[in-house]
Amino acid sequence: MAEEEEHKPLDENGQLEKAQSKKKGKGRRALLDLCYIAICAAVITVCSYISVPVGDIPVTLQTLAICLTAGLLGWKRGTLCVLVYILMGIIGIPVFANFKNFYALIASPSAGYVVGFIFTALLTGFASDNLKRLGGRAKRKGAVWAIQFSVLLLAMIIGVLVCYFFGTLWYMLIYKGSATTDNLQFALTWCVYPYILPDLVKVVLAAVLADRLKRFVK
Question: Half-sphere exposure (CA, 13 Å, Cβ side) for 184?
Answer without folding.
Answer: 4
